[in-house]
Amino acid sequence: MITRHAFEELFKRIENESRCHIQVLYGPRQTGKTTAARQLAKKTTQPFHIENADAIDPDSKEWILQQWQTARLLITTQGAKSAVLILDEIQKINNWSEQVKREWDADTANGIELKVVLLGSSRLMLQQGLTESLTGRFETIYVPHWSYSEMQELNDVSLEEYIFYGGYPGAATYYKDWRRWKRYINSAFIKTSIEKDILMLTRVDKPALLEKLFKIGSNFTGQILSYNKIKGQLQDAGNVTTLSHYLDLLDTAGLLAGLEKFTPNEVRKYSSSPKFQVQNNALFTAQQNLDFNAAIMKPIEWGRWVESAVGAHLYNASIEGGFEVSYWRERNNEVDFVIHDEDYSLGIEVKSGGEGYTKGMENFIKKFPNSKTLLVGHTGFPLEDFLKMDPRVALESIGGKVN
């Protein structure tokens, strides 16, 4: 077992700091949130109480209060200065944020040093609870999909295996059984994430449409498609606003993102066609008919896997990394990804073979003279090294000044 950065950050806040904010650990399924909470419970020097709301009646009005009272009692019975309360899958309880607010504020008023950690599988948890009732009372720690370095350390996967199978440690057992691996990813991750992290948390009038949008978007990862073109492939697609909303929901569940076009013009930015990007390459691979041995023998198809792996790496790092990921295209000129913040911008072109520096990179620099570019892969910065590094290092080291 390895310790992820999320655990290290959580332990530092709980063990070394006084009670100040509720700590919220969130991220996609199977990324190690519960494991991090259990590691905290084992390592902390403070009394702790940990419970999971997964099997609790969603309408229970007493469950949160009962857990809170149990944790408070630990301070009294053990003569401790503080204790830790950890509640997993908290979003399963209806009106959970109001109940948490009431108990947190009561402890604040009474000077009770009870430190609280909440865990949830979807960013919808933030949108439908934390920001409504708990503003100013919480901090977040995002737990992203597993990186190449972590998968290599944990399961000793090769670069090619990571690009093809993605970053789900629990699925590594099935690498040698292609059909079983596909079934496992589709049922344990995709279906569960859609049903429990989207449909149970928000109103979706056309759930079948949302599922079809995921399948189309994951199949076309790394490609730019207009919403009107997507509508042509879907029955009962509704309007563009509905599709855009459903794509946002898939994004919050850690499944599929729609990258926007890089442009200083905000209006054009938000009206641009999305570039689909799975957040874990397993989500793309599970929709394909090529197994591992067949895929790596087809250079053109393999190039899609490579580009998607780089995109997923960039996007996962961006969620709490303080930068954005976009794409750039004008006519026939394109740069695969652009990472940028208020100070720097860096165009990234991914090549698994063939030519190196492209016309797209050249014209990107002409369009944005202060930007810089980086070629990743063939004749450029080594792909393996790039997937092991924090993209912000590249942005701040070689990125061009925005102004």
TrEMBL record:
Record-linked Pfam families: AAA_14 (PF13173), DUF4143 (PF13635)
Domain AAA per the UniProt entry, residue ranges: 22-151
Domain of life: Bacteria
InterPro entries: AAA_14, DUF4143, P-loop_NTPase, Restrct_endonuc-II-like
Domain DUF4143: from-to ranges: 195-353
PANTHER family referenced in this protein's UniProt entry, alphabetically: AAA+ ATPASE DOMAIN-CONTAINING PROTEIN (PTHR43566:SF1), CONSERVED PROTEIN (PTHR43566)
Stated name of the protein: AAA family ATPase
Origin species: Nonlabens dokdonensis
